[in-house]
């Protein structure tokens, strides 16, 4: 992310409980995905779980982006 975006993220994390929750969930999901990446092979169940986590993470990122845009517009 750009420096300006990171400043906005930090601000929203401190000011918006919803954004903070999404951000923390995003970080946890990233850690879970990293654990899958460490494995040489994934079982079919693990692969399904990995894909499920990716979808949840992407949906959360989309929501954070929406909140960031809304915040940017209301500030300007």
From TrEMBL:
Taxonomy, superkingdom: Bacteria
Pfam families cross-referenced by the UniProt entry: DUF465
InterPro entries, sorted: DUF465, DUF465_sf
Name of the protein in its database record: YdcH family protein
Organism: Geoalkalibacter halelectricus
């Amino acid at each position: 992310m750009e420096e300006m975006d990171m400043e906005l993220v930090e601000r929203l994390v401190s000011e918006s409980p919803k954004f903070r929750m999404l951000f923390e969930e995003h970080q946890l999901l990233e850690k879970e995905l990293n654990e899958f990446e460490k494995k040489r092979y994934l079982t079919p169940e693990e692969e399904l779980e990995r894909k499920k986590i990716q979808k949840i993470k992407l949906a959360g990122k989309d929501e954070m982006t929406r909140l960031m845009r809304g915040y940017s517009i209301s500030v300007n």
